[in-house]
Each structure stands twice: as C-alpha cells, then as structure tokens.
C-alpha cells in the first residue's frame, strides 16, 4: 500500500503537540508493516535550522494561488525509513511559529495546493492520501473538484483524521476564488458553508472517503452538541464513515530503559532509577529533594481544553496536603500567570515552568508519582500514555481518549492503571486525586501493582497502525 500523509507538523521536524507526535510515529509504524509511506510538511525555519544540512534539494515549481504565482521549493530527507518531503516558501514558513500567524488561512491554503501539485513532481501518487486536521482539510475537496482532471490522481482515496475538532479553519468565502482558485458553487449550495463561513473541517468531513478520529469515545462524543463544537450535526450525518482509532506513542523513543532525556534509566522490574529521577527532577525544578512526598506532574498546553480552570480553582486546596506539584506548559496568559503566582506563593511545594521543553517533559513523566490531566475534552491525549509508560499514574477525567486508555483503579481487584472521575468538576477531581494520594501513602504494594499494570500496557503504534491498514484496505 502506498500512503501519503500531509500535515502541518510532524516530529522530529516540527512539533507543537499530539499531532506532531502522531505524524512522527504512525508513518514509521506503517513502513515496518511493509507499506510505502511518505509525508509532506511545510519547511518551517526551525526545520531549516536544525535539519537543513540533511536536506536534498529537489528543485522547485510555481503554483497558482488565486491570481498569483507562488514559488514552491521541494526538499526531501529520509528519517527512520520514511521519506519526508517539504514545501519550502520563505514568505509563508520563515516565521518562527508553526501556527497562530495572522495569515494562517493563506499559509495553509498555499500549503495544500503545493502538496497536491507536488505529488506528481516527486512521483509519489499514493493509493491513500491521509490528511490531518483543518490545515489540510480542503485537500479532499480540491482533489475531487479542482484536480479531478489529472489522470494519475483519479484513483486516490482520501482519509481525514480529526485530532481536535475545536480548530476548524473558518474563513471568509472569498478565499475560494482568491486563494484556492475555484468557483463559489459549493459555497453557495451550502456544502462548504457553515455559520456563514467557509469551514475547512466541514469540507473535509463531507469530501473525504473516510473520517477518523483519535479514539472511539471521541468519535461518539463529537456527534453530540456538548463536544461537537458546532459540527455535531455534520458528524451525525456522516457517522457512517466516521470511526475512532486510539493513537499509540513512540515506544522506541519513550522508553524508560533507554530515554536519553532522563538522567537515570529504569524498568518495570527495577524502579530504583525512577526514585533517582525523582530526586534529580526535584533538584532541577527547585523543589526540596524528598523521597517520601508524592510528586504530581502536569505537562500541557495551558488551555481550557485541558481542565486548567479546575486546577487553578482547586490548587490552594491541593497544596494544603503534603505534596509537591511540578507544571510544565505554555498557553493562555491567565493560566501562565496563575501558575507562576502559585509557584511564588508555595515555593516549597509548587514549581511552575512556563516554557516548552521536551527534555524537561520527559523528566516529569519519569520522575513524578502522579500525572494530573483533568481535560474538559480530550480527542486522544498522549501525555497520560507517556506517564503510564514511565510508571507515573495518571489522574484523569473520563472523556475521549482518556476514558479509552486509563483503566481506573478497582480497590476490590487491585486492577487498573490510574484514577479517573466522571463528573467534570473541581470537587470530583480533588476527591480522585486524594484517593490516589491515600493509596500512594497507605498501600505501596497496591501502588506498585498499578505501576506494573501501567508500564506493561501496550501503548505502541502496532495496534493502531494495523487498524489504519485495515481501513485503507477497505478503500482501495
Ligand atoms: P495536545 O495534542 O492536545 O496538546 P497531547 O496529550 O495529545 O495533547 O500531546 C501533547 C504532547 O505535547 C505531548 O507529547 C507532551 O509531552 C507535549 N507537550 C505539551 N506541552 C509541552 C511543553 N510545554 N513542553 C514540552 N512538551 C510539551
């Protein structure tokens, strides 16, 4: 099977969150299963800075963006068996940020046109074109309504994966003519229109041959008004082609026995290295080095999605216990300021690290006892799986992928891999966290059993990539 991924980010080249992890790991796993896989990404300046000397130059062409011709440089490198191709244009991607620019609509409109035209030039016309999130959501539409005349493209099937329905790509309809160079018929007949905007995600859901999202629970949730972010009706309408496949994590990279980011290695059989990692982490983030105190970690975008309103409201209460909290994240200013304030108010108990740091993230997964992730909604979530892999037990809300990946502790059987609460409220979050703290303090044997369970769960991509191959096979 020949599969082409097109996405806005992919590790190790560019990563801001879970999407980057998935694009880094799933293609690799598909290659291991014997598929031919390539990825197209934008050539951001941070990629040029870090990987520039590994890049092969494949020449350039011009694509028509509305009435303008725009340069498309083509670069390539091979990483762990996967061919990564890059769309190079300094005007759009020499910015220092992946998203959040004033002209993201134009940047990613250009990227999608360039990627579609590039398939012929790099001679990689796939059986399945797998696109991800709104930044590439117009591709299935463009393939069927703009590039349908290219003979080589006529059998391509498309899969669209929703990593987060919150970001839909809502733009002025003028973009259809001005950037995509297509007519307004599909906007005027309502197909591409939603709330009087052009909606890229809606376009993707209607035009893709299959739509997936990153956990079975989230696939159900987005059909409801509570989680559908206004598109629930479309999700219900298209539910016949919608399914959920839980993400894996890169278990080669995220391995407590070999992880190069952590100072001490450990395994499920011998956790002595984890205790040393805890001490090293406490020292690094400026907390008193104490073996006996439960250390609670958080690594996240600081947004409402991740339930930080609950955390901020309850943090005073939580810090009344004999605990330490280490937070790593960036995001909404209010949360950044609140956590910094708590860090100053409770210097012996709270360390707020308002930055993006992959190495510190690994040290938190490895060195903590508990990982707190009370998301309001969570398409899949990777952090809870990463923490379980390192024997750090998650306390999570029962939504989306958190529900599908964390087995709640059962005091009768001793089974489970973490702790969870169903009612999204600060009260239940604290109750559940206290239950975890009690078990940590009172019953080390039961705690160790949960660590065993968590660390031996299979979170690898093997299962997920087989599910994707099954899906692709149904299409071609
Ligand atoms: P989302 O994609 O919604 O942000 P996920 O849990 O799916 O959440 O994935 C988040 C990924 O980003 C994880 O790999 C996590 O370790 C990483 N991450 C989030 N914030 C930071 C940060 N401040 N520093 C380093 N890594 C981070």
From TrEMBL:
ADP-alpha-D-glucose binds at residue 15. Pathway: Glycan biosynthesis; glycogen biosynthesis. GO terms for molecular function: alpha-1,4-glucan glucosyltransferase (ADP-glucose donor) activity. Residues 287-454 form the Glycosyl transferase family domain. It catalyses: [(1->4)-alpha-D-glucosyl](n) + ADP-alpha-D-glucose = [(1->4)-alpha-D-glucosyl](n+1) + ADP + H(+). Keywords: Glycogen biosynthesis, Glycosyltransferase, Transferase. Its EC number is 2.4.1.21. It comes from the Bacteria. Residues 2-236 form the Starch synthase catalytic domain. InterPro entries: Glyco_trans_1, GS/SS, Starch_synth_cat_dom. Transmembrane segments: none annotated. Belongs to the glycosyltransferase 1 family. Bacterial/plant glycogen synthase subfamily. Synthesizes alpha-1,4-glucan chains using ADP-glucose. This is Glycogen synthase. The lineage of its organism: Bacteria, Bacillati, Bacillota, Bacilli, Lactobacillales.
